[in-house]
């Protein structure tokens, strides 16, 4: 398995290039470009493997800032036809059952990947030559000055069919030796609202964030699928911060508005997942950028 290591000013990003035969991630759920293996700053591990058992074909065998696109064309495809999963390629629809994020689909056309890298930057370009579902997708991962990194994206629709849906970042930050519980906090520059999937005694919404009431135990998870500002304001710019009691943290910024945010956590990792909607007719393109600022103390939002 090959890796790409970007380094600058004490920040080290280990990335895994797309490779359906020998790559770190060979599932069909997450975008194959820019798969993060580890994020380390001055020896402190911000992101690493969070799962108990690794399998390259497991749907979520990804680390760090993993991204996923919604599938396109699945509902209208017949069994045996293909549908589009941006960042993966064309996949076969095996039967008439609903689309399943956790299923490993057969790959009909993986497209062509080009990967280039320098000391502090890597560029992944995915070209899918298909009359109906063609596209050019570019992702650039770059370490910036001052202890932060950026992920920039450009998706251009070169096929006949419209490409639309949502894209989101799963943000698997493991925060050193910390585990989901009172030592981990999530904060927003807005007052959050939303509905928990169940009645949990382990987590709650605070005035400006999410707080664990106790450590989560193995086999336990919590979920909220409709987290938004309580005043209905647009979510863009500074979006959230995850911080641990040891003083380390990450603040997430985006330059496009989100439709909603999902929160999910188990006993190993907690994730804020902001969703961006997009819609591209043939010939149109869409650009969006994320920035991750590494913090070494728990300052308030600016």
What can be said about this structure in brief?
With 302 residues, the protein is mainly beta.
List the helices and strands and how they pair.
Blueprint: E1 4-8, E2 11-16, E3 35-41, E4 44-47, E5 67-69, E6 82-85, E7 89-92, E8 107-109, E9 112-117, E10 121-128, E11 135-144, E12 148-157, E13 163-169, E14 184-187, E15 192-193, E16 203-205, E17 209-212, E18 222-229, E19 235-244, E20 249-258, E21 260-265, E22 270-280, E23 285-295
Antiparallel strand pairs: 1-2, 2-3, 3-4, 5-13, 6-7, 7-8, 9-10, 10-11, 11-12, 12-23, 13-22, 14-17, 14-19, 15-18, 16-17, 18-21, 19-20, 20-23, 21-22
Protein architecture, described:
This protein has 302 residues and is mainly beta. It has strands at residues 4-8, 11-16, 35-41, 44-47, 67-69, 82-85, 89-92, 107-109, 112-117, 121-128, 135-144, 148-157, 163-169, 184-187, 192-193, 203-205, 209-212, 222-229, 235-244, 249-258, 260-265, 270-280, 285-295. The strands form four sheets. Strands 9-10-11-12-23-20-19-14-17-16 form a ten-stranded antiparallel sheet, with no helix packed on it. It has a six-stranded antiparallel sheet with strand order 5-13-22-21-18-15, with no helix packed on it. It has a four-stranded antiparallel sheet with strand order 1-2-3-4, with no helix packed on it. Strand 10 and strand 11 (135-144) form a beta hairpin. The model has no long low-confidence stretch (mean pLDDT 96).
